[in-house]
């Protein structure tokens, strides 16, 4: 096993820069997820680590070796792709054994490694089947098995769950996480799905437009996003964002675009006199008979919780309550805000002030 370092890595396709100076330190054994919207450059970064794409500037290290000029086969990594890339004319066992056969491992060694990987992944009874005789989840497991048998220093995953239906995705998420807990192989995983990132990663790298916006543990990003981009990207339903300014007479009061006053527990001095965004996660509002009245626009009960869209502060605001709510659209409910969990962002720079 080995850590991975990206040091001021840059990449341009022709004159078009897509990776604009990225620094990421990945510890030995860590599960790191690169996440960001489509086109932000996360797959390019992974492909550069795999050696499938060259680097325009900077350095990539695996362990203490600079791998910039090393061909993929000499990097001691194994990659699992979105489309699994299984050989259709080979059995599960042969698909898993293929790379070991290429490097000249003995039959005994191959059988042993394939047997162990099949056991870990629950594929033992499927070893004689062909890919077309497998479900999507089983195919994904074979693709992982092919990576495991090589016992590489680093696993790379490129959106491995995006071809699976929602239920299977949730199940495979847990399987991959368990696999990592068992093997403890350094893992770099790319997805555009922030829930996948939140639930699986030791550390998340949030990317946007070729740069790293923030790196941190999932709940640290959730509780302390560096800026508006991260705040809006991490969390589902998303953080509510309300435009306005602090009341010059009373900095504990935020005046929204529609004139409504919202509470601020610890107003920072940097927020005074500036255009701000009031960031309010959906769970930090409560039904409160002494609170302010809002009109319900949409109500979505899931059984476990109730999600509501209400209108105040000049925008639609999503709230999530653990209790069941009987109000209908058009009716009023009364809310209070947990001011201790409110964020303020500088509207111009996007930087979080509290
Ligand atoms: P997605 O989630 O859609 O896969 P991504 O974050 O993985 O997106 P990349 O595939 O890394 O994004 O692409 C980053 C940018 O680089 C995009 O603007 C893309 O169009 C561009 N790009 C990727 N590969 C090439 C290429 N071979 N030639 C030119 N431009 C490319």
From TrEMBL:
Taxonomy of the source species: Bacteria, Pseudomonadati, Pseudomonadota, Alphaproteobacteria, Hyphomicrobiales
Any Pfam family the entry gives: OB_MalK
Transmembrane portions of the chain: none
InterPro entries: AAA+_ATPase, ABC_transporter-like_ATP-bd, ABC_transporter-like_CS, ABC_transpr_MalK-like, ABC_transpr_MalK/UgpC-like, Mo/tungstate-bd_C_term_dom, NA-bd_OB-fold, OB_MalK-like
Record's keyword annotation contains Transmembrane: no
Name of this chain's protein: Sn-glycerol-3-phosphate ABC transporter ATP-binding protein UgpC
Membrane-related topology note: Peripheral membrane protein
Principal location class: membrane
Taxonomy, superkingdom: Bacteria
Family assignment from sequence similarity: Belongs to the ABC transporter superfamily.
UniProt-annotated location(s): Cell inner membrane
Origin species: Rhizobium herbae
Any one Gene Ontology molecular-function term assigned to this protein's record: ATP binding
SUPFAM superfamilies, A to Z: MOP-like (SSF50331), P-loop containing nucleoside triphosphate hydrolases (SSF52540)
All copies of domain ABC transporter, residue ranges: 4-234
NCBIfam families per record: PRK11650.1
Keyword tags: ATP-binding, Cell inner membrane, Cell membrane, Membrane, Nucleotide-binding, Transport
């Amino acid at each position: 096993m080995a850590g991975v370092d990206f040091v001021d890595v840059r990449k341009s396709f022709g004159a078009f820069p897509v990776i604009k100076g990225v620094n990421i330190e990945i510890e030995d054994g860590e599960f790191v997820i690169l996440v960001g919207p489509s086109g932000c450059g996360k797959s390019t970064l992974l492909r550069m680590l795999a050696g499938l794409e060259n680097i325009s500037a900077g350095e990539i290290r695996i362990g203490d070796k600079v791998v910039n000029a090393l061909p993929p086969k000499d990097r001691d990594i194994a990659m699992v792709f979105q489309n699994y890339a299984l050989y259709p004319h080979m059995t599960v066992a042969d698909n898993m054994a293929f790379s070991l056969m290429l490097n000249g491992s003995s039959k005994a060694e191959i059988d042993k490694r394939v047997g162990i990987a099949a056991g870990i992944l629950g594929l033992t009874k499927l070893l004689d089947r062909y890919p077309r005789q497998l479900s999507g989840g089983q195919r994904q497991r074979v693709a992982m098995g092919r990576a495991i048998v090589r016992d590489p220093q680093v696993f790379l995953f490129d959106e491995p769950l995006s071809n699976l239906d929602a239920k299977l995705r949730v199940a495979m998420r847990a399987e991959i996480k368990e696999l990592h807990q068992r093997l403890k192989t350094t893992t770099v995983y790319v997805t555009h799905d922030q829930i996948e990132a939140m639930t699986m990663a030791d550390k998340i790298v949030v990317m946007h437009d070729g740069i790293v916006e923030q790196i941190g543990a999932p709940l640290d990003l959730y509780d302390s996003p560096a800026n508006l981009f991260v705040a809006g990207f991490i969390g589902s339903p998303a953080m509510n964002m309300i435009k306005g300014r602090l009341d010059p007479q009373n900095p504990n009061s935020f005046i929204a675009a529609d004139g409504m006053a919202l509470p601020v527990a610890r107003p920072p001095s940097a927020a005074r006199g500036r255009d701000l965004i009031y960031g309010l996660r959906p769970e930090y509002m409560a039904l409160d008979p002494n609170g302010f009245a809002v009109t319900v626009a949409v109500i979505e009960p899931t059984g476990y919780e109730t999600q509501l869209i209400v209108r105040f502060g000049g925008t639609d605001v999503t709230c999530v309550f653990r209790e069941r709510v009987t109000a209908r659209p058009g009716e009023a409910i009364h809310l209070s805000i947990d001011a201790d969990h409110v964020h303020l962002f500088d509207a111009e720079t996007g930087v979080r002030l509290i």
